[in-house]
Automatic annotation (TrEMBL):
Catalyzes a trans-dehydration via an enolate intermediate. Belongs to the type-II 3-dehydroquinase family. The active site is at Y22, H99. It catalyses: 3-dehydroquinate = 3-dehydroshikimate + H2O. This is 3-dehydroquinate dehydratase. It comes from the Bacteria. Homododecamer. The keyword Lyase applies. Keywords: Amino-acid biosynthesis, Aromatic amino acid biosynthesis, Lyase. PANTHER family: CATABOLIC 3-DEHYDROQUINASE. Pathway: Metabolic intermediate biosynthesis; chorismate biosynthesis; chorismate from D-erythrose 4-phosphate and phosphoenolpyruvate: step 3/7. Gene3D superfamilies: Dehydroquinase, class II (3.40.50.9100). It comes from Gaiella occulta.
């Protein structure tokens, strides 16, 4: 089962931005963990990150018909990028929206997600472990 893990805007600043909220480990640490968990769960994973919305949209386009599942943390785009919702809409396989922090208990504007209603799963507020949970959720849906 092939899963793309797509981290969006500012996730490359992990370890440097607000460690109280996001922890003090880096994106590279996160990706190393994700690859190790994927091996344990016998999943084939590719991690990608970008700060460019159009590139993120293209990551999703590349996953159409190619990935069996997606893990998406679009960062702040989550709260306003209709382009990302439109790109994901034709994705027929399961996906999980992940947020390191508990976006439901922070500022009001973080509570809304453009991915709402697309039928995906959601893991919030569990830090890096949220990605493990997302991998397990997708692995559990294996045909
Ligand atoms: C985030 C939450 C977003 O509100 C924020 O803009 C981020 C990170 C998270 O993982 O908790 O950049 O997606």
């Amino acid at each position: 089962m092939r899963i793309d893990v797509l981290n969006g805007v500012n996730l490359d600043l992990l370890g440097k931005r607000d460690p109280g909220t996001y922890g003090d480990s880096s994106l590279q640490d996160l990706e190393t963990q994700v690859y190790a968990w994927a091996r344990e769960l016998d999943l084939q994973v590719r991690c990608r990150q970008t700060n460019h919305e159009g590139e993120y949209v293209e990551f999703i386009h590349h996953a159409l018909g190619a990935a069996d599942g997606l893990i998406l943390n679009p960062g702040a785009w989550t709260h306003y990028s209709w382009a990302i919702r439109d790109a994901l809409e034709p994705f027929a396989n399961p996906f999980v929206e992940v947020h390191l922090s508990n976006v439901d208990e922070r500022e009001e504007w973080r509570r809304f997600s453009v991915l709402e209603g697309l039928g995906g799963m959601r893991v919030v507020g569990k830090g890096f472990d949220g990605y493990r949970e997302a991998l397990a959720l997708l692995g559990g849906q294996r045909a």
